[in-house]
Amino acid sequence: MRFLVGLAVGLVVSLLALPVSGQVTSTVIPLPQGVEWGPNPALPSGARLAVVAGQPGAAGLYAIRVGFPVGLQVMPHSHPDDRLYTVLSGEWSIGLGTVFDPAGLETYSPGSVYVLQSGTAHFHWAQAGESVVQIAGLGPTATNYVDPEDDPRRARAR
User: Fold this and answer.
1) Core-most of 22, 37, 102, 122, by most CB within 10 Å?
2) 28 within a domain of the structure (yes/no)
3) How many percent of the chain have pLDDT more than 90?
């Protein structure tokens, strides 16, 4: 019982310690048909990106959507922020590790939620068809490839 009381007090204190901006703002999130898609320079050609809320490269909460066309493989990489993935459509596959290993892929269907800790090396393969995933986190974020030669931005800069 003391543990539960201590846990509850700790939670309340933690919530009270969160920064308060003093200014109440709201964000209008577009309906799916109103989302503006563009290329995702950090992923191989064909991947799409839509910023739904916030700015991923800036400090603060952000939400993005990433479209993976069928057959797209994303080599092992990591992100500096914790991320919450929600599968919106299709089947989305993720594997953990610094080496692309199809045997290590786990596949998730629409409605699935996946939490990935910052710095965790992982990879993707859109095997079963196109998928769309919404990703939320606290920026700034980045995509850091395990092998810099796998980074599509590097190849495009040549």
Assistant:
1) 122
2) no
3) 74
**At CA 144, angle to CA 44 and CA 101, rounded to 5?**
65
**Is the pLDDT at 2 greater than 60, yes or no?**
no
Confidence of residue 128 (pLDDT cuts 50, 70, 90): confident
How big, in percent rounded to 5, are the helix, strand and coil portions of the chain?
A: 20, 35, 45
For position 51, which CATH number holds? Answer: 2.60.120.10
In our burial notation (b when 16+ CB lie closer than 10 A, e otherwise), range 75-111 reads bbbbbebebebbbbbbbbbbbeeeebeeeebebbeee
4 occurs within a structural domain: no
Run of H or E residues at 2: helix 2-16
Structural domain of residue 76, as residue ranges?
Answer: 37-157
- Extended strands (E) in the chain: 38-39, 48-53, 60-68, 73-78, 83-89, 92-96, 106-108, 113-116, 122-125, 131-139, 144-145
What's the whole-model pTM score? 0.80
Q: State mean pLDDT over 1-22.
A: 39
Strand partners for 122: 77, 96
* Amino acid code (one letter) for 111: G
